[in-house]
Every structure is written in structure tokens, then in C-alpha cells.
Amino acid sequence: MKGEAGTASLMTDDRIGRRAADLLPEEQAGGGSADPRAQAEAILAESDEREEQPGAAPDSFLERRSSGEASETGEITR
Questions:
Q1: Fewest Cβ atoms nearer than 10 Å: which of 10, 36, 40, 46?
Q2: What is residue 68's three-state secondary structure?
Q3: What span, in angstroms and rounded, lies between the C-alpha atoms of 61 and 57?
Q4: How far apart are CA 3 and CA 38, in angstroms?
Q5: Could you report the per-residue pLDDT of 14-38, keeping only the tens digit for each?
């Protein structure tokens, strides 16, 4: 778990427990984790870090738009 204030406040036992119970098939590949809670905690910490610092993962892109900025018809607007 990261020591950052924002990330630490989001790491609750309940949240970690729910994530550990719902590991994705690719996260369970190879027989699953010996410690699903630790795996869930690591997944959530990375997710929280990417949300707080979108540039933290160079290969990812996080687009933030409001519903008012989204196209109503599904068409691309410019």
C-alpha cells in the first residue's frame, strides 16, 4: 500500500476484501494468488495511483469528460 494520503484513505479492509473476492480471470491465471488480499491491495494501490496521477503509467491514457461533453448520438464531435 502506498504511503500517500489520498491512496491510503481509499484502502479500507472492506474495499480490499471485495476486490479480493472478485479477482478477474486473468488475475487468477496460473492457479490464482497465494494471497488474494495482498494481490487485491496491490491492484487497488496501482489503480488509485493512476487515478491520482494519470501520467504515472506511460502506456495508459485516462480521458476525463463530463456527460455534457460527450456526444449524445455516439458520433464524434469536434
A1: 46
A2: helix
A3: 8
A4: 16
A5: 998 998 888 888 888 766 678 888 9
